[in-house]
Amino acid sequence: MGYLFVIAAMLIWGSVGIFGRWADQPATVIVFYRVVSAFFVLGLFQVVRGGGLRRAWQEAAGQYGWVVFGGIVLALNWIFFFQAVTLTSMANAVLSYYVAPVLVMLLAPLLLKEKLEKRTLFYVGLAFLGTLIMNPLGDDVGGDHLLGILSGLAAAFFYAMVTISGKKVTGMQAHTLVLWQTGAATLVLLPYLLWQGMVLPPTSSIAVMVAIGVVHTALALTLYFIGLSRVKVQHVGVLGYLDPVSAILFAYLVFAEAPSMGTWIGGTLILVSSYLILRTKETGGRLDGAKAQDAAT
């Protein structure tokens, strides 16, 4: 079941680009509203189900450092990714960003004491090759383009740390973890937005960004951390490549953007690598991260 939760999160995240177009706002504004609305909705959920925010805070006892760290790297991940999209081509940004699963695979043995699996190394390589075919590196690699690629790599590092920190947290329900991570991310992003000069967006844009916060942040992150608690981090890294595949599918269904031959070939390689991972066994019943009780909520 853990794999299904991760796949569901990736499919949801694949549609975030569509909602981003509909929002028609600067990237930092979208990120801010998504974490604020996610924090508000999850806080309300915590109050309604009983216990309130105090109980949720007590649940994080002894792990405040990892929880807050997770929120900070979550915000930095989004900031650097959207910075990459601004400075360089989408192909350069996507390719540099999807170095993240490779970083996760390399960091897992060091920080989580997971044994590096040779077959997983092959699966990640296959998926990254698929991403390269789908988004070949652009010819421009100097000036702002180089800075954009470096921003994408920075985003990849912070995404990897989001995954590592989520695995480090134990004994917390997934939605509680996301609650405090989005709260920390809000505190990180607010000064950044105020420094840029925040203007109240149109009501229609706010509605779309709230939807992103509820569906693509609160729900998807909760599903992701539930899956992360049941599956090896290295396997989660491979499944992460389903995100760009689902994004292309949604773009075709909603905007009639026909995939190229390279997209078909690259996407097939990613799907094959994901299938090979799904054939492996899950890591028993022990939950290292957020509790599985969230599966019933």
TrEMBL record:
Under which name does UniProt file this protein? EamA domain-containing protein
Q: Single GO cellular component annotation? A: membrane
Q: Which interval of the chain is the signal sequence?
A: none
Instruction: Write down the InterPro entries for this protein, in alphabetical order.
Output: EamA_dom, EmrE-like
Q: Cite the EamA domain residue spans from the record.
A: 1-134, 147-278
Q: Where in the cell is it found?
A: Endomembrane system
Q: Which Pfam families match?
A: EamA (PF00892)
Membrane topology type: Multi-pass membrane protein
Q: Which UniProt keywords apply?
A: Membrane, Transmembrane, Transmembrane helix
The source's superkingdom equals Bacteria
Q: Which family does it belong to?
A: Belongs to the EamA transporter family.
Main subcellular localisation = membrane
User: Which spans are transmembrane here?
Assistant: 27-48, 60-82, 94-112, 121-138, 144-162, 174-194, 206-226, 238-255, 261-278
Q: Which organism is it from?
A: Tumebacillus algifaecis
